[in-house]
Design brief:
- The complex is a heterodimer of chains A (57) and B (275).
- Chain A has 57 residues and is mostly helical.
- Chain A is 89% helix and 0% strand.
- Chain A has 3 helices and no strands.
- The longest helix of chain B has 25 residues.
- Helices cover 49% and strands 9% of the residues of chain B.
- Chain B is globular.
- In chain B, helix 1 runs parallel beside helix 2.
- Chain B is built from 11 helices and 5 strands.
- Chain B has a single domain, classed as HUPs (Rossmann fold, 3-Layer(aba) Sandwich), CATH 3.40.50.
- Chain B is an alpha/beta fold and 275 residues long.
- Classes of the chains: A mainly alpha (57), B alpha/beta (275).
- The interface between A and B is medium-sized, with 27 and 30 residues.
């Protein structure tokens, strides 16, 4: 019973914390989107330049 | 009794083991193919109920025998301090709110460094974990990280790495079917688990990763994962080198020994299950 209550108390506190942080993170990532897009394109290019045997596990 | 040569994955393996349904099923699949398997539960110092991991560990020991399966809970706070908390100010400045999810990656990489040391010291060429595709929103379970880590870490130190249940869904039902489950419907549990530790920052980290970091962040997660892990690998290598400083056998000798043993093993889990 205590565990059940504790579970929901933690959920009530920590899930909103995650949601608030998540919204802040979404705004941050939107503001940084050009850097992320450029870096992602660079990573994709690096991967494409690798020999085929290195791309697979 | 089986001889060493009869075990598909050879003499020794270790498994990153939380005691949850995924790592328990992964551990069973590895242990069934190995003469001796060590279940490694790492305690970073800030999680609760670490002892919960003993429940499924004991079931595996009862099922396969104490000569085949062993469970160790290993404190790794000094390693966490050097890798996860190595340069918090820099991490916060660079990754900002995304550190909510990336912190779990740092914690996992600290555990990986500890596992490398354990395996090298105990001459264990096989390492496995319970990563699953269903949790690929979480940085440390992204397929691209698992592949990258296989190259950058496990292979570098002479080990074969497997994620045997990566494509399995409902590992809790599989455990029930195998008679290995301490509690029914494990996947329905949340926050406080009966068979694994609880991380206080796990809940916001999980919400962040699943609801915001995956689909809403575009390429941010992939880029962050690459940059964050690239920054952590040098610290991991330094930590491992420091650990073996002045010891016999040397780090290089231990790695070579594992490489020789690993060379005889299947490269991928698909090859293991094809045999």
């Amino acid at each position: 019973m205590i565990k059940l209550v504790l579970r929901y108390v933690i959920a009530l506190v920590m899930i909103p914390v995650g949601i608030v942080l998540g919204f802040c993170g979404a705004v941050q990532n939107h503001l940084r989107r050009h850097r992320y897009q450029a870096k992602h394109a660079e990573l994709q290019q690096q991967l494409a330049d690798q020999p085929a045997e290195n791309r697979e596990r | 009794m089986k001889r060493n040569a009869d075990y598909q994955l050879g003499e020794k393996a270790s498994v990153l083991f939380s005691g949850g349904s995924d790592s328990t099923l992964a551990a069973y699949l590895i242990a069934a193919r190995t003469q001796h398997t060590t279940l490694l539960t790492f305690d970073p110092g800030f999680i609760f109920f670490v002892e919960n991991s003993r429940r499924h560990a004991q079931i595996l020991i009862d099922k396969l025998g104490p000569d085949r399966v062993e469970h160790k809970i290993i404190p790794i706070k000094p390693i966490i301090d050097r890798i996860l908390f190595g340069d918090v100010k820099h991490d916060l400045r660079k990754y900002g709110f995304n550190l909510t999810a990336l912190g779990c990656l740092g914690c996992r990489m600290s555990m990986h460094a500890a596992a490398v040391i354990f395996n090298l010291e105990n001459n264990i060429p096989v390492i496995a974990d319970g990563s699953i595709t269903k949790q690929a929103d979480i940085p440390e379970q992204m397929d691209s990280f698992i592949r990258r880590n296989r190259e950058q870490l496990w292979r570098r130190y002479g080990m074969r790495h497997y994620s045997p249940i990566y494509n399995v869904v409902n590992s809790d039902r599989r455990l029930d079917d195998l008679g290995l489950s301490a509690v029914g419907k494990l996947k329905h549990q949340f926050i406080l688990f009966d068979t694994q530790p609880t991380c206080p920052i796990g809940v916001p980290a999980d919400v962040y990763a699943r609801l915001f970091y995956g689909h809403l962040s575009g390429p941010a997660r992939e880029v962050d994962m690459v940059e964050y892990s690239e920054e952590k690998y040098p610290a991991m290598h330094r930590l491992i080198e420091d650990h073996f400083e002045g010891k016999k056998p040397t780090l290089a000798q231990s790695v070579r020994k594992l490489q020789r043993a690993a060379a005889k093993l299947p490269e991928t889990w698909e090859e293991v299950t094809d045999d």
